Amino acid sequence: MAARVMNLFESIGFSWLVSIMKLFTLQNPKEQVENLIRTLGVPLFAFAVFLGAWHIGASQIETSLGKVPGPAQVWEQAGALWDEHKAEREKEAAFYERQHERNALKLEKNPNAEVRIRDYTGKPTYFDQIVTSLQTVFAGFLLASLIAIPLGIVCGLSQIMYTAMNPIIQLFKPVSPLAWLPIVTLVVSALYTSDDPLFAKSFVNSAITVTLCCLWPTLINTIVGVSSIDNDLVNVSKVLRLPWHTKIVKIVLPSALPMIFTGLRLSLGVGWMVLIAAEMLAQNPGLGKFVWDEFQNGSSQSLGRIMVAVITIGFIGFILDRLMLSLQKSFAWDKDAIVR
Amino acid sequence: MQGYLTIEQVHMDFNTPNGGTFKALDNVNLALEKGDFVSLIGHSGCGKSTVLNIVAGLLTATQGTVLLDGKEVNEPGPERAVVFQNHSLLPWLTTYQNVELAVKQVFKRSMGKKEMDEWIKHNLHLVHMDHAMDKRPGEISGGMKQRVGIARALAMRPKVLLMDEPFGALDALTRAHLQDSVMEIQADLNNTVIMITHDVDEAVLLSDRIVMMTNGPAATIGEILEIDLPRPRNRLELADDSQYNHYRAEVLRFLHERHAKPDAA
Ligand SMILES: Nc1ncnc2c1ncn2[C@@H]1O[C@H](COP(=O)(O)OP(=O)(O)OP(=O)(O)O)[C@@H](O)[C@H]1O
Ligand SMILES: [Mg+2]
Questions:
Q1: Is B48 in the pocket of ligand 1 (CB under 6 A)?
Q2: Residue nearest to atom 11 of ligand 1 (CA)
Q3: Predicted confidence (pLDDT) at residue A178 exceeds the cutoff of 90
Q4: A287: which of A41, A133, B27, B44 fits an S-S bond (Cβ 3.0–4.6 Å)?
Q5: Which ligand is the nearest neighbour of the Cα of B47?
Q6: Is the minimum CB–CB distance between B105 and chain A shorter than 8 Å?
Q7: B105 to chain A nearest CA, in Å?
Q8: Of B113 and A331, which is predicted with more confidence?
Q9: What is the pLDDT of residue A338?
């Protein structure tokens, strides 16, 4: 059990956690301490230097909104955002509580009375925005993967399809997804017209914009992975006369999987970056909108709050990448292959 | 020419990148009876693999035909199983699953689940690999991989077994072991086999006939040597056998003459 946990930490790049665990179980402590200094001490020191430089640098710059916030102010704002979030949740709970009380009273008087619970419509907190952004990026990423992987397999297997698709891929790959945003917005509002939409329009807009940029890395990497299958393995499938679906499941997919995952990781990274920009530009709910609102707001706290958002965005991006990495490792058939 | 497997007037031209053609094979003719074990020997690049791939259906001859059991060969199929030079196992499947993939495909109509399982295990047992059924190719040695490759080919119950330098990448001892296994299996199952080799001893030890190819380009069959040694053959006893050494010398002489005069073809 402990070994499995350690393996997991090792695989996602937290080897210092392994060292700490081993230290607790007293497996040659000297080596563990050295290891700990190397894997945890060095990065921590570098981070401390960074914080110091930030602190000194920030206090030199005067903006129209006051001084650029240093680490301490940013930390303070993070706390403030958390408090706001808690307060908002309490308000929400109280709101529902009041409704329930009122309904209970109503029912007491008249058991057949029609009771309704109205939704709480408070302002989304910082943490709500994070959740929205995450949902959006995953929706867009999923949609892109569902298109790009099958399409990539087809293009990788068929020279004709590849020749047909290649110019389109080359043409649209370099386009910044933000250029798509106006078109996406217009097309979505033209086509996505239902009275009771399952998803909010802004959500669909952002998700599709993410899709449009998540598409390319996965597509291209899948094509490369599929078309570079070992010729001998292709011959095996020919000699066996494998039907196409067996060939894809047993031979094509496993051998292209490392490349597909590389593509997926790139896609998710790009998608996350683009999403924030799209939310800022389109005023769609999410972290991007939070940043934009704070910028427009222009209070003395704004810069600190934006900084909190910047760090959150970076941190989430990092976690997403690690998530994909451990997914890739758990799917890898060649457990010895080094994946970073 | 009549036989179980016949190669009739096969010519092969490859297109070269600069627009010309390269004549690899010129009028290759060969006939095998059922149960024949034939070795193809010749200098590197003369066109042995090309012949084998044409029989396998992986290449299409520019001219000429290959007939198996009276039917023309024009695409790859499991009745002509190939043992590839570098084993070609799927690295993400265990040895059992590698053989299973072939068995499921070839016998999906004629065998039940249990029967398939027994058949897979039987074939792994034949090549002495039943102890490593759940290992992946990455976890077993080169010789073991080659064994599994042979088991996979045998499990297709092919009409013809085609082997392209099956033991080329192995050390001498492993090689000898595998040669003995192949002889045993051959004695049991009486397969029809074409095997490519560079090793004169291997050719003489295993074959009923050795087909010696002239040097390319435009390679063809130079000489055919009947190996009339009683079976079962034992490599240690044969080492001092005058007949055996005579055959060896014949093959060496052919290869050396060709080597000395590459244009002799
Ligand atoms: N796909 C191809 N395109 C062009 N030329 C080819 C192709 N395949 C083989 N050749 C040429 O045909 C000739 C015979 O090749 P082949 O692979 O059959 O040789 P071989 O006898 O198997 O050699 P080796 O013993 O080294 O495996 C070589 O000169 C090779 O360059
Ligand atoms: Mg060859």
A1: yes
A2: B24
A3: no
A4: A133
A5: 1
A6: yes
A7: 7
A8: B113
A9: 62
- Contact flag B78-A230 (C-beta cutoff 8 Å): no
Which residue has 């602190």 as its token pair?
A: A55
Q: Whose CA is nearest to atom 8 of ligand 1?
A: B50
Measured CA to CA, the distance from residue A293 to residue A176 in angstroms comes to 23
- How far is it, in rounded angstroms, from Cα B60 to Cα B54? 6
Q: For A334, which residue in chain B has the nearest alpha carbon?
A: B92
**Going by CA atoms, what residue is nearest to atom 14 of ligand 1?**
B47
Section B141-161 average pLDDT: 91
pLDDT at B6: 94
Cβ–Cβ under 8 Å, residues B60 and B74? yes
- Which among A230, A240, A333 is the nearest to B102, CB-wise? A240
Nearest CA in chain B to A230: B88
B84 touches chain A (CB under 8 A): yes
pLDDT digits (tens, 9 = 90+) for B16-30: 998 889 999 999 999
Contacts of B106 in chain A (CB under 8 A): 240
Question: B75-131 pLDDT, tens per residue?
Answer: 999 999 999 888 899 999 999 999 999 999 999 999 999 999 999 999 999 888 889
- Name the H helices within chain A: 2-11, 15-24, 29-36, 42-60, 71-109, 126-157, 159-172, 177-191, 201-227, 231-239, 244-247, 253-282, 287-297, 302-331
At residue B158 the predicted structure's pLDDT band, cuts being 50, 70 and 90, is very high
The two structure tokens encoding residue A324: 């994909």
Report how far apart, in Å, the C-alpha atoms of B88 and of each of B11, B34, B99, B247 are.
Answer: 28, 27, 12, 33
**Residue A333 Cα, gap to closest chain B Cα (Å):** 5
Q: Which two tokens stand for residue A62?
A: 């005067």
By C-alpha distance, which of B79, B47, B88, B101 is closest to B215? B47
The residue whose CB lies within 8 Å of the most ligand 1 atoms, and thus the one to mutate among B7, B26, B50, is B50
Which pLDDT belongs to residue B55?
Answer: 95
Predicted confidence at residue B264, as pLDDT, reads: 46
pTM for this model (two decimals): 0.83
Which residues lie below 8 Å from residue A151, measured CB to CB, with a gap of 6+? A165, A219, A222
What is the mean pLDDT of the segment spanning A192-204? 80
